[in-house]
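User: I've been going back and forth on whether these two constructs are worth ordering. Before I decide, could you fold them both?

Assistant: Sure. I'll take them in the order you sent them. The first construct and its structure tokens:
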Amino acid sequence: MKNRNDRAILHVVLATGISSVVTQLLTIRELLTQFQGNEIVIALILFVWLLLGGMGTLMARLVSRSQWQATVRRLAWLSFSLAAISPLQIIAIRLLRDVFFIHGSSVGFYPILGFIFAVLTPYCLILGFVLPFSLFVLRSKDPQYPGARIYILDNLGDVTGGALFSFALVFIFSPLQAIFAAHLPLLAASIMVFSARERWRPLPLLAAGVVLVLLTAGILIEKTSLQPPEGELIDYRESLYGRITVHRDREQYTLFEDGTPLFSSANLVMAEESVHYPLSQLLKPDRILIISAEGGVMKELQKYSPRKIDYVELNPAITEVLFRYGLVEKITGLRVIHRDGRAYLSDTNRIYDAIIVNLPEPDTFQVNRFFTGEFFQLARSHLSPEGILSFSMQGFDNYLAEPQRQKVSSLYNTAIDHFNNVQLLPGQRIYFLCSAGPINIDIPALLMAKGVQTDYIQGYYYGNLTPQRIERLNALVDSTTPKNFDTAPYLMRIMFQQWFAKFTTSPAVFIIFMAVLCLIYLIRITREEFILFSTGCMTMGSEILVIFAFQIFFGYIYFQIGVIITVFLAGLLPGAAFGRRLSGRGKHLLPMADGLLMVLMALFILAMAFVGERLPVLFFLTFGFLISLICGFQFPVALHLCGDDNPAATRFFSADLIGAACGTLFTSILLIPYFGLLPTAAALIGLKLLSIIIGVTHEKNIATSLSIL
């Protein structure tokens, strides 16, 4: 009976790992769609997830000291709870977003953080509690049961769940269908725990039925939960690059990707400005590249009778929907290319007369990569001698706020390095016209000479874009503003500051508060706990670095987030197994592993500095695997050095999780936005150097070690 109980408990640990990672990935994607695909949201989710998990682990430590016994039956009830909460969590994210915030409005940092805490707390606390509690149940009958075995089995479940999601569920199922499929093993394992312990009673049977009903109900209300407050949802699909929805309000159709409106059937002004401002400068625009589009753009392009129009759109689902609902028309010479715009330009030899970038304000790393010096250089190499590049930013009426002025100045200073002439035109959006040749700002006269008819430009241009307004806008450019680059994204720093300024808040309060809590925690922990704290920090800091770098160089994190997280999880498993085998060979193993982590991060810095966007996807995945391999190695070694009892296991589980939470927070909120990728990587090296110094001291208490240093 004992072996049967043990197997049932181990099945619960494995199934919990599978279901929790699938739930985590779906939660990330769900919150990304609710908050416009902002990468900071990914970091906040991971931070909250890890912090709450660490708190749940600490709760298990407190329980181990009380009279509340760790029993098989209680473990089964906890597992039932996890399976029941998961679909409710996804539905709550969808339904409560518009309850707490105005529909369609932007949301500040602190409200987003509070919302994430509110919806994740029940699931994550129980999840953090279950892992050490499973160990306590096993040790209630076998006090010598190794804690590293539970850690390894949990990692195996995590990797299985990540792989299952990334290579199967994401292609086959909708989010709530994937939740159903991923939690069936956990439901079955929980039933096995009850049946292994005793004969079935009515209450466990009823609980299993309720959980199954909740999982099934999630599937049935999938589309209903996405209905907008206004208008009608007429199309919904989960693509590899984001959620696509089409809303109809009377005769107007609007396409949304991740909650952001991308295309509308009534957008004449934007269509005319984006097309005619650049093309009016050319004698005969024959070859045109469009990176994304506006509703009505193709009709305006057709007025020039170009020979070739290459329309690049990363997501095939978007173009399918656009053509189906007439938001974009199929015209003569049009070629649709389903690729990332930068990747396409890097691989093609085509030369264009005009490159028109129709992208929103660069408020994410994914969009920012089309507004950097590297992109401008790439675009210039694919333009004819008199060719023109056009892109736009948020509009300018009579006053330009300082953050917006800094963004415009940074873009101007970046673009002027690659084009002889850069002209700014005010309007609903500020248009940048970049060319090697001269730029004529009398757009209506140029169009009249070409015989091109327009409605908005011919009727309103002279009244809106007076020479005085154009001159005043260009005079506002500050030549001392830093330029915008891939690995030093100055625009993202401004966007981050502007995000807080918009809601009259500051990240400083939160960062200082978390730093104080972190310091209090560090003073109370042992040397080995600090090493695992720094290891967790290094693991998640590296993961955030890879996520942001992936956005910068490849631009489609929505699909790859599952692969990246899975790879970082995959290295933990063999690392932990190897560490368990070598754990008896001495304390020197921990500083040696720290040294290897520093070497890997140094190689990452060199690769980013000298190769950059030429790095293949495999490089980032291999880097993530090796980092997690070494980090996984350290856990069983540290656990062995401290006796591997229940208090040590809970302390180390929590140190790893809390360190990972801090690494996520400080790299994403402070280091990357304000300093860039390479200084962030250098800071992680510094943390591990401190870990080595503390690791070789003779003091067990971290506070004493720090005072000596």
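The second construct, handled the same way:
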Amino acid sequence: MGCSVLPRACVTALALVLSVAWPAVAQDQKGTLVFAVESLAAQTLDPILEARPGNAVYQAVMYDSLVGFNLEKGGIGPGVADSWELAADGLSWTFKLRPGQKFHNGDPLTAADVKFSLERQMGPGSLAASGATMRRTFKSIDIIDDLTVRINTNTPQIGLPPTLSRAVAPEGAVMPKAYIEKVGEEEFRRKPVGSGPWKFLKNVKGDRMEFEAINWAHVRGTPKFKNLTILLVPEESTRVAMVQTGEAGIASIGPETMLSASKAGLEVLSVPGTMQALYQFWGWYKPEMKDNPIAKARVREALSLAIDRQQIIDHVMNGKAQMPHPFAAFGYTEYYSADHWEKWSKQAYRYDPVMAKKILTEEGYPNGFPLTFANTALPGTQFMVDIGTAIADMWTKVGLKVNLKHYEWGSFAPLSRGEQTQLIGAVSMYRTVGRPDLQWRYNAAFAPESEQKLLGDTKNCDATCKEYTRVHTALLDERDPKKRTELTDAMVKLIAESWVAVPIIEGMGYYAVNKKLVGAFKTIPGRHELGDVFERIPRADQAAWPK
């Protein structure tokens, strides 16, 4: 059409071209995709009333976020905005919106809707987890034109785009300003309108949510199924049985069910880069711990060398996991030398019990030592207990006297807060989830003022702890991409070589798929939930699964 940057005349022409294709799109949409899931969380379709799980499962199907995903690599990518830029002084981000977007009621999506949505997330009726942070850091939001919005901040917010991406949180969801102001909040919650690939049909509390595919081209993908039903089925065995009988096309499952689902002829789909199972040491830096073996970094390294991660991947995770990067880092992590750290991890996280015994002997523990191991699992990751049991057995083989204590998460979580008195000198299972913005997860685990304070507290902060604080502080203010990567790598190195929080495996989200109903599709790395994938899922007659 002779338009290099899609000016408004070209946008109109493009809309006319797309409108010709809409009837063909609608004719090719058939059937209902039924997804059986263990939880529907709060089951609300107002983005300001729902936290991460609901936003990522069912709100994602009908709402777009200001920042989206890199569909192939994982991490952030274009969303409602197709580009964003940080000002030279670091005090504002300018987002350029893709032209031609519209809500399900036909209203155009503009910068006014973005401003309205962000302000609504910060408003008094919002339950947004980041609402208080946004109120504290956002100075103002300016509408430059219909397709440009600028967020002004009180201090530099280098990591702002990920926080407005559904890759991290729901706060970036874009809602229709004119519609909500016309019908009011209560009516909007009964009949919600978004701009995503699926339109709202029905919400049956405690049972299901139903959606209908839009019949026009969408940048995230145009649905192949005509309808989508997200069905609440708490029992995993029932979910799998429904996929076997064809009552559901897809169901969420855990690692414990993967083998039986595969033997039943179902496709078992895994999502890479969603989490790490790890163990971490508590209070090792306290003065009373100075003579304890775990106060020595080499001893902590030896315990890692004693773990056969591949055996855990093969036998606990049924082969549906992989070797990890360092703590909380993934292949899609921003400002991070992923290739370098992948090579480092293969060597550092190798299984070498001979070297483990050698180090223990050199450090004065040829016959091992007693160690309390709190074995627990965060909700939805029960397999962590099996991993912990396997680790305890491996440590016993290099001489440790492991006192394995099993905790329900509800009883363990309070122990990790405050003074952590009952955990001092112990090691526990833990988990970190996949996020592109590494520095925030590190601060929550290692800052002396943090809740976990794994590296030291405000009274006991050694040279490594102080250096971590220096590097992390510099990272928050650094705007040059090259220097930012160097600082991130330096922070990762400090923690990786301290061996205080040690990844065991990089886990995945797991789903059972009926190959007679659903065709082959790829998930988004790091996106455990399928909320942004349903529109790209083909019918079985459209794409066969590889044999």
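Notes on the second construct follow. The longest strand covers residues 267-281. The chain has three domains: 20-62+196-249+514-547, 64-177, 273-507.
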